[in-house]
Amino acid sequence: QLPTYAFQRQRYWFEAPATPDAGTTADTRSAEAEFWQAVEHADLETLATTLDVDPHTPLSGLLPTLSEWRRNQGDRAALDSWRYRIAWSPLAGAPSGTLPGDWLVVTSADDAGHRLTEAVARALQEGGARVRTVVLAGADRGKAAALLREAAGTGPEPAGVLSLLALDENRDPRYPSLPTGLTANLTLFQALDDARIEAPVWLATQGAVSVGSSDPLSSPAQAATWGMGRVAALEHPRTWGGLIDLPAVMEGHASEHVRAALAGITTEAGKEDQLAVRDAGIFARRLVRASLRESGDPSWQPHGTVLITGGTGGIGAHVARWLARAGADHLVLTSRRGPDAPGAAELADELLALGEGRVRVTVASCDVGDRDSVAGLIRDLTAAGEPVRAAFHAAGVVQFSPLCDSTPADFAAMADGKVRGAEHLDELLEDEHLEAFVLFSSIAAAWGSGGQSAYAAANSYLDAFAELRAARGLPATSVAWGPWAEKGMIEHGEVEEHLSRRGLIAMKPELAVRALGEVMGAGDAGLVVADVQWERFVPGFTAARTRPLLGDLPEVRDVLTAQELPATAGKEVVQAGFTEGLAGLPTDEVERRLRDLVAVEAAAVLGHASSASVSAGRDFKELGFDSLTAMELRNRLSSVTGAELPATLIFDYPAPGPLAAYLRTELFPEAAGDGAGVLEDIGRWELALPEILADDGVRSELVTRLQDLMAKLGADPGQAASEAVGNTLASATADEVFDFIDNELGAS
User: Fold this and answer.
1) What is the pLDDT of residues 467-518, one digit of tens each?
2) Of 97, 313, 537, 589, which sits with the fewest C-beta atoms within 10 Å of its C-beta?
3) pTM attached to this predicted model
4) Residue 277, strand partner residues
5) Euclidean distance between CA atoms 152 and 474, whole angstroms
6) How far is Cα 241 from Cα 723, in angstroms, rounded to an integer?
7) Distance (Å) of CA 374 to CA 304, 442, 484
8) Could you give the C-alpha distances from 384 to 241, 425, 661, in angstroms and in order?
């Protein structure tokens, strides 16, 4: 017997695109067209040449070759679609900006009287700004917040905050792997949050980026601030102003360009927030597709001794396997634990087998953050007549922490291996022997990643460091990688699943190392290599604000154009002026709309087509939320409501219903203590009781909280009454609990 109602179903598989994929390159399409044209015309000679087989090969022998050819074409298309690079686009006709209001210009003690600091302050004043200089000389978070509150005064919110702290490139005395300017900017951002200053924040640097061959990059230390800033833009979209790289000398039109940038430049791609000011004009940072340079070998071939830092880790092991197959003579794999690292012995045996007796493997204990340790290893190799021919710096770990919860110690722990390791290798390896110097960076540095400010800062330094080495005529390659599959750069399945939902697909290691070989063979100093499904990535990435960085990618423009079409049902909840639209409404209507908002945003984060699947009584964890999607939901709700919400939001309020109630008290605190509102809340609890108590965990938590509540209400009559209440509620049924509340509080 079939049911009498119509079947209801929802398709979760992604449909194949009707048009050729963006990753299908012209070369791939040409090869396929040539193949099918030869088949259509029965051109045996051309077909044999295309497949590289004997024209007289029988069909049984041709099929494996044809299958391999087809796979290779697919791999070729994938590899071509993964490559991107950073470009700088001149902004024509940028307006001459005016800057009314108060601007806080934040400097270190050393830079307070610096010529550039004075020139920037003068440029702002000429645009109408009232400049208040704030000197943060080693101030901790609390002291910095007090200084900022004092500078902001009691009047209107400052119009903007411009930080020049990154100009201080001295090593932080507490954390030698970090520039003082980076830790100072971290403290600044956290102090602004503590001081409740919501003015847009701009982080300025000088020489941290290069807009072209005639404009060399000079400061990897300041480039680290760009990595941190890109994460700040994701985590704090409402208070983010942007990143601005200043010219070496503030002459000519430079002051005018600085004012225009800070006043806000809006292009077709959105409000620009990653800018470089030069006397010739203003340049905006863009991600564009990259083709391999025509010069150079199609793929780099290893030989001699090859050093891999982090060689026993996930990504280092994949690189070692590739090098063993490709012809390296001696692989030196380092890690802090060396031969005692988990799986090190098994990896060494595997590499020996892959090398078919041609390769030797050494697993060495070496902390690349310790100069003496690196020097000793390189000295021993050189003395043995085996100088390092190629170095792959893959050491590093990934950790997650919101920017405002991170500490300088967190940043130092990330930089000790990545940054100091790169510096030590650069200093100690002999240039006369070295043919390849490869740094493993991350897309967290290229466009930011929530919860990874320390990781992004360290990797942004690596990208700039490689660019600086290449400018000196030395071998250098830095690749900002997307996630690798099979325990590559991400070790936890939860993270990989989250990234996949967001459109970041883990790359097959055998293809990723092939991409690396091609990049090295072509001589590119810096590229982004990632498998991104933009139709899934863009909506979440641009939910809180526009991201002009992606504006030149055709597939991104297509997604954004589609988003501008009329909103789907339920989406009208998320609109400008949402909070204002709630003013004056009855309490129950306010909370209903907030529940709708939470449901819509939660469904969007989880990738559901409708908010109907998000029940007010189901735990977020049960709905499929993890630590990363929790942060995304918090950011989306903060963007819509304008409320500063804690990073632990859905852990403090683990279901949509309680979260909506919390939002109401945050948005309308004057109603939170209203006795009538409390009684209305109790009435709504009773209506929601069957749904809430369907989950035993929710029921247990609710009973515990009600016990605490009744204990407080029973405190005056005496301890005995309180204990009696607790005992009654502990064993009460759901109906008895709410009957008790009705009787005690008169809500019936």
Assistant:
1) 999 999 999 999 999 999 886 555 555 667 778 888 999 999 999 999 999 9
2) 589
3) 0.75
4) 282
5) 48
6) 55
7) 19, 24, 27
8) 54, 19, 70
